[in-house]
Amino acid sequence: MGFRMDSVEWEALVARYGWADGDEFDWYTVSVVAGKTEDQVIAAFGGDPAGTSRTMTFGEAIEDTAAHLYKDYHLLGVLAEGRHVWTMEPGYHGNIPEIARRASANGGEFFSVYEDINARCQVMHAADGRVTGAFDPIGLEDADFYHDLPELPAWAEGATFPMEQLSAVTFALMERTMGVPFDPDLLRTPVRTVTLPAPGVLFTDTDAAWRP
After folding, report:
1. Is the pTM higher than 0.90?
2. How far, in Å, are 101, 125, 133 from residue 136 at the CA level?
């Protein structure tokens, strides 16, 4: 994990992700997996690599999901770039610790950024089938004042979490940890998109699936 970076480099990295603090999307999970193929990642997320897929942009996936309002309908966009596979969801499968464990099993590595309109956020990292850390950064800037600052994983050391830059910081953490930048143009790029089963179908023990 390449999380060593001086303060000037870190601030510049966060600034590059300033676009993420706009209001373009209400709900998303972006994940990156190292050391796996697209098919392996789809399978880890609970999808069928041999099943039907469509080519859609993230915006189109949002619209398609909205058209299935009040139904358990989950889409996953995937794109391989070198030894990394990006996933983009108008949903939350990449926010589930058991998905992180499965996607990173057998020598892989995983990082996800989740945010929704209800002020919920999470960053999570896993390596070789084990979650190394998962936390909600909202409110962490004030936590020290109240003497309840949680213990952060090593890959989050040195990061600060101002509310006005919160999304930028989470994407910067992803790049710093995984060593690969997320290009926002991917959110406008048509990618292979598959349907995922609902977590209640995918897991026999949903409580265990959500437990880091």
Report:
1. yes
2. 18, 12, 10
